[in-house]
Amino acid sequence: MEWASEPGEEGPKPGLNPPLRAAREGAPGRMEFKLEAHRIVSISLGKIYNSRVQRGGIKLHKNLLVSLVLRSARQVYLSDPCPGLYLAGPSGTPMALPQLPGEPAAGPAAGWGEPAPPAVPAAWQETQPHPERSAVPDAQRAVDAEPAAPGIDAGDAVLGGQAAAGPAWRLMEGPREAAAGGPGNPAGASEVFPEVARAASHHCGRPPGGEDQPGALGATPRGDCCCAKEEAPAPPPIGPRKRGAAGAGGVGGPAGCPAPSSTPLKKPRRDLEEPSSGAAAEEEEEMETGNVANLISIFGSSFSGLLRKSPGGGREEADGEENGPEAAEPGQICCDKPVLRDMNPWSTAIVAF
Amino acid sequence: VGGRGGTDIISTVEFNHTGELLATGDKGGRVVIFQREPESKNTPHSQGEYDVYSTFQSHEPEFDYLKSLEIEEKINKIKWLPQQNAAHSLLSTNDKTIKLWKITERDKRPEGYNLKDEEGKLKDLSTVTSLQVPVLKPMDLMVEVSPRRVFANGHTYHINSISVNSDCETYMSADDLRINLWHLAITDRSFNIVDIKPANMEDLTEVITASEFHPHHCNLFVYSSSKGSLRLCDMRAAALCDKHSKLFEEPEDPSNRSFFSEIISSVSDVKFSHSGRYMLTRDYLTVKVWDLNMEARPIETYQVHDYLRSKLCSLYENDCIFDKFECAWNGSDSVIMTGAYNNFFRMFDRNTKRDVTLEASRESSKPRAVLKPRRVCAGGKRRRDDISVDSLDFTKKILHTAWHPAENIIAIAATNNLYIFQDKVSSEMH
After folding, report:
1. Mind telling me how many Å the CA of A15 is from chain B's nearest CA?
2. Where does the signal sequence lie (chain B) (predicted)?
């Protein structure tokens, strides 16, 4: 069959030719893979942020897909129990990632989505009782990783710890949400916020390779997913990342990690008032993607603030154009806090999500 | 014809049921209809060319003040209604509103009025000495387009498909979470026939990506999901078709698992074959043919551009991984076609299992020029005219393609250009 063209065309426009990075594809090595996951998380967050300002409103389909990628990448990133990757020592530099015995072989197929090797999980066992999946207890659990003053809303949010930081975000960020809500979220401010965070964490309920190994859940913060309740042998979830990480000191945590008891980070929040806009959201059916806008308006601003203050610990891609729109975002108070400068911003941001 | 900010980027292409008319919609809310010139003995070389027939503004940008949302005017889909009289009708939709347009021709006008003169001025009655009957005289063809119905406020989420039922009375529109059934004559209400919105939006795991009525059975329709599954629903079974009659799903290949597995398995388009026996789906890397009688897996899978499988991270970064490619059957259901990057499009012959990659570009598309098959080289032996994967232009994507219902004529939308190719060797289907 031969195909011939017919006249009747219109003038073309010259196209751009974005460079296609092939260098990193199929990255071998566990560290390389984790950096990849790291990068994917930041890219995903940037996408969610940018979707807020695009014409036509937030696209539910695309944001759902991005949240799935975010969840997967986060799983991989947090599946390594070594705290070195996300806790900085006093010098502010990230610690090296020690190789644990019995680690699964490098490569995406092996490491991605699978629970941590058995040697590690024991250290992750937390004796924290699993709170009911509701807003206030989650807030209590998630908030206490931040050593700084309570005023650092964004900082708290960033260091919140789990996907259960969803409700914690909302509760802490109550006053700021109205300012940062922006278009697409006039009324549904309250409940919208945790939705994406929870959606991101919830989807991961059934990763391949089985998830019911004891302590495996400790490596991945799935415990707060509501789906964890449905599965019988669900291990208890761990609390904020730092506590758990410190608990893993027995398996080669780096020196300088604060011990759990000494961490001055716990600052449970109680009785934060829930904005009562849930009722307003019911009155007229919203597209209910305002949650995404909120998540990024808060997260994005603090995220970019952290990135700019990063002492070069971040990656080049972090300074991409996605930080541009965030630069003007109001409410970037976290970047001025000295304590945050000492943290590896990437780690804390990832952990928080 | 350049537009401001890419408003002339073609967003949908659709032949009507006879193939005589070809409609395109663009990002600026405009619809352009092309008509095929009848072959004439006088100009044997210009037989069957498509010329512009009508252009009109279908949708305008809107602003939803209640939700502080701008509603894009981009035409997402156009579907022709079966022709029932001299007029043509089509449905066009943007994210929120569907409109029924009627296209009529006027090629005669009445002349010889008694009370008016040729310019329409009233005559002095004293000059009228006899009465005459006005007669219709030919005039230059005028194509008139008028909006007959506006189906608004039916969708909270973004409309991704519309499909006219074979009963010619109803049609459906689908957004991310719901599918509505409309009657073509009734605009103030619609019936919701599918609703996958979870009670708690946190539990959302998949969305509807495309839907279509069966070409012959007016009670059957299919919708695809972002998880790669197809659901065939029977409207006779229940008023709300949340329970599918059949679920078509292929288990995932665990060796292909990556961060992006979910994205690339999302179905971007679903099309019934003309026979009604098969369905064609497109996901990011493949096209698949499904037999309605087999739910477990597709009967055929064709790799469109598998060399991109190792580039998914970069494609995620530059958003290309979210591109929604369409797919098309030829009239005899023996060849399937879909677009790719670098202005390439691919055709797969289901019988011979041969496939070809062609390019829609100005250079290769001089009138009557024959398209040369292209090849993408992903490493290994490279021939002279091969394109390497890294030099593919990912801004030149062919998302929308259409195949004439009976002949081997295809319409390819390459950003803001429309290419129409015809198989001159044999115009009949094979």
Report:
1. 6
2. none
Domain limits, chain A: 40-75
Sheet containing B135-151: which strands, arranged edge to edge? B77-80, B88-93, B98-111, B135-151
Return the closest-CA partner of residue A108 out of A217, A209, A26, A24.
A26
Q: Kindly tell me the burial class for residue A315, based on how many C-beta atoms sit within 10 Å of its own C-beta (0-12, 13-18, 19 or more).
A: middle
**What are the pLDDT digits (tens) for B32-70?**
999 998 877 666 555 678 999 999 999 999 998 888 889
CA distance A305 to A154: 10
Average of per-residue pLDDT values in chain B: 91
The span from the CA of A59 to the CA of A287, in Å, is 10
The C-alpha atoms of residue B356 and residue B372 are separated, in whole angstroms, by: 10
**Run of H or E residues at B151:** strand B135-151
Angle at A38 between CA A36 and CA A41, to 5 degrees: 110
Residue with tokens 């080289």: B377
What is the DSSP annotation of A92-145?
SPBPP-PPPTTPPPSSHHHHTTPPPPTTTHHHH--------SSHHHHHHHHHTT
What single string gives the DSSP state of each residue in B176-228?
SSEEEEEETT--S--EEEEE---SSGGG----EEEEEE-SS-TTEEEEEETTS
Between CA B25 and CA B171 the distance in angstroms is 19
Q: Is B317 near chain A, with CB under 8 Å? A: yes
Report chain A residues whose CB lies below 8 A from the CB of B255. 109
- Residue A293: its chain B contacts at CB < 8 A? none
Nearest-by-Cβ selection for A61 from B52, B207, B368? B207
> How far, in Å, are A90, A203, A231, B270 from residue A211 at the CA level?
35, 13, 10, 34
Q: Do A26 and B310 touch (CB under 8 A)?
A: yes
Q: Which pLDDT score is estimated for B316?
A: 95
Rounded distance between C-alpha atoms, residue B58 and residue B28, angstroms: 9
For residue A185, give Cα distances in angstroms to A191, A329, B242: 11, 16, 29
Can you tell me the ipTM of this complex? Answer: 0.89
User: Which one-letter amino acid corresponds to residue A159?
Assistant: L
Task: Give the side-chain half-sphere CA count within 13 A for B180.
Answer: 25
Sequence-distant (≥ 6) Cβ neighbours of residue B189 within 8 angstroms: none
Residue A28 half-sphere exposure toward CB, CA atoms < 13 A: 1
Minimal Cα distance from A109: which residue of B? B257
**A268-295 average pLDDT score:** 42
Which of B141-150, B233-242, B335-344 has the least mean pLDDT?
B233-242
**C-alpha torsion sign, points A208, A209, A212, A217:** negative
Q: Report the alpha-carbon distance of residue A242 to residue B143 in Å, rounded.
A: 71
Q: How far apart are the first and last CA of chain B?
A: 36
How far is residue B180 CA from its own chain's centroid? 19
Name the residue among B212, B155, B149, B145 with its Cα closest to residue B184. B149
* Greater model confidence, B167 or A91: B167
Contact present, A120 and A103 (Cβ < 8 Å): no
Q: Nearest CA to A142 among A213, A233, A244?
A: A244
User: What is the amino acid identity at position B176?
Assistant: D
Cβ-Cβ contacts under 8 Å, A287 against chain B: 67, 69, 156-157
Percentage of residues of chain B with pLDDT beyond 70: 95
Residue A88 identity: A
Residue with tokens 């043919």: B289
Tokens of B241: 């078709």
Q: How many CB atoms neighbour CB A217 within 10 A? A: 28
Match 């250290």 to its residue by tokens.
A123
- Neighbouring residues of A23: CB distance < 8 A, sequence distance ≥ 6: none
